[in-house]
Every structure is written in C-alpha cells, then in structure tokens.
Amino acid sequence: MAKPALVVVYEDREVLAALDQALQTRFGADYQIIPAATPTVALDTLRQLRQAGEQVALVLADQWLAGMTGVEFLCQAHALHPTAKRGLFITYGDAAAGTAGLQAMALGQLDLYLNAPWGPPELQLYPAVSEALSQWARSTGTLGPPPELVRIVGPRFSPRSHEFRDLLARNSISHGFYDAESEDGRRLLAHAGLEAAGSPVLLLFDGRVLVDPPTDRLAQALGVQTRPTLGRYDVAVIGAGPAGLAAATYAASEGLRTLLLEREAVGGQAGTTSLIRNHLGFHAASAARSWPPARPSRRWCSAPSWSMPSPPPACDPPIRTGSCPWPTAARWPAAPWSSPPESATAACPFLAWRSCWAPGCSTAPR
Question: Are 57 and 31 in contact (CB under 8 A)?
Fold first, then answer.
C-alpha cells in the first residue's frame, strides 16, 4: 500500500522548493510529499489519489493562490479527502490572511495555521506538521489501536464495570473491555487463573490482576500520585478543570508550593469537549481525548517541572467547600496541610489524607 500523501500548495516556487526539501527530509520516509505550484494542479492530484484509493494525511496551502484563496482550495480538498487535516500558511503582517484564517478555523474549515517565513523548520514547521499528522493518525486509526494498558473483564451491564471504563476513559488511559461471558473474556480469566464472577477483573499490562479494586488501589497500581510530597503548601486548588488547572499552573510557575486536588479527571469538563482552542495561550486546537494526561498535553507537562503534585481522581463524597467558588484556591502559610481544622473531614479514596478544607474559604463545611 502506498504511503499516505502530504500535499502542499505554494505559488512562490522558491518557497515551494524549500518547503518540499524540508518536508522530504523529516517526513519523506513515511509520507509521499507532493508539491504543487497552483491549486488546479493540486486538485487534480487529489482527485487522482482518491480514484486510486490512496490516503491523504495533510494538505497545506498558502492563502493567496491563483484563481482562489487558500481557504477555498482547502474546502475543495476537504470534499475530496474528508479525513485529511488542513493547514494554511499566513505571512507575518498579512492582516487579511490572518482574518481569513481565523474565520476559517471558527467555521471548521481549517485545522491549523503556520506562519511564514517559518525560519529553521525545527522551530515551527516540523512541530506543527508533526502534531497535525499525529491527530490524523489518531482520528483515522491508521496506526492501529493503542496498547491496552488495562483490560477489564466483567459483566457487560455491571454498573461497576461501567464505572471503571468511564474512569479510565476520562483519564485517557488506554483500555479494553471484555464481557466475562464472551470467548475472549473467558480466555483472559482462565489465563489469570480466575473464573467468571459478578465482579469485574482488571488485568494490567505488567501481569498484575486486580479484582474489583477500590479506586485508590487502582490509582496506585497505575502510578498515580495519591499522597502529597510536602508537609506544607502555599496554595491548594480544588478542582482541576480548565480554570483550576490554569490557576494551579500559574501559581506553581510563580514559585508557590501548589497542591492540585481532582476527584475524577484532570481537565474536568474539557475531557468531554470535542475540541478545545485558544486555551492558556495555545493557538492549536486540542482534542478532548488528548487533553490532559494521555498525550500528555503541554499544559499538564508543565506541572511537574514546577513541583505541583496533583493527586487525580476520585473523591467520593465530593470535597465540600462551603460557599467558595469552584474551583477554590486558598493560602494558609501558618499551618501545614496535615493540620486542618477539626471540623474538616471528607473521605477521599484517591487522597490518602482527610484534610480537604482551606481556612481561606468564607464558610467552613457543615
């Protein structure tokens, strides 16, 4: 089978030649790089690829082309190859091209834009193209399914089985589910020396077997940090949704000892959003399933480098914060985290301690 195609259209032939050489150097081993100087030639090529049943991974175009704009060309390319990612080159200082690009992104006609000139390709060109190709591979399943880090074997309609699947999915942990009564399910259980029962069984990639484990035990088995590393913190942020994650990130970047508490999944509601754009200053869109830990995303990667421990999922019952807004940020330099007011009690299976109230709140939990 032919390699997936990467089509690029640029009227300036010198720029097109340089772009072709740069893309061939980095991506030529896995993709066929197809340069075109006009949109007409590029569209003819795309039609031929479609007739041959070949895949197109990415189409790049300059905004100003002969006979049509880059956005118009990309819309026609999308009609021929709906799964291909689309990118637009925008020259620095070209306000008209920038406006057209932003409008196209808002209308779903564009997946990314690249600035021109791009300088050394390692700085902007290669990272942007690599990200687009990665998104294409994930969305089309071209590279096959990811490895199953956890295999869940249990009754198909078991609420507990569904809880495990939901928890792993929201935390972007690759997993598979097998009905305990199916042939594959029975085979997996037999290999683990077990028989089908009413409780789900979790088979980890390293051979460990967990039978209906508590949430905190599963978290520890997957290497999740469930205990604070410091005895005292400057800032605690409760709720690692987009707002809480941003607050904790910026607090840690300023040198504050920051603790981030999350009861389900880092990213919160963002984990169920189809696409996220322009969050925390990142211009590129991010799919929900890659939002925070699985990629891991750039937002999440910054946390460890600033010493921001974050014990993720799950706290049940939820942490009570009185009348404080959600997420809640509070400072208490005088007392260590391990010495909260006596009135503060909350059973948090993912958090090995019980102090979940901050004196900065206006109202203590009742």
Answer: yes
Contact 278, 180 (CB under 8 A): no
> CB pairs under 8 A, 24+ apart, for 275-282?
276/242, 277/105, 279/242, 279/246, 280/246, 280/249
pLDDT digits (tens, 9 = 90+) for 92-151: 999 999 999 999 998 999 999 999 999 999 999 999 999 999 999 988 887 777 789 999
**Pairing between strand 112-116 and 209-211?**
unpaired
Query: Which is higher by pLDDT, 334 or 86?
Result: 86
What are the residues whose beta carbons fall under 8 Å from the beta carbon of 220, sequence distance 6 or more?
226
58 phi, psi to nearest 5 deg: -150, 140
Domains, the chain, ordered by start? 5-140 (3.40.50.2300), 150-213 (3.40.30.10), 223-366 (3.50.50)
Whole-prediction pTM: 0.63
Longest distance between any two alpha carbons in the chain, whole Å? 74
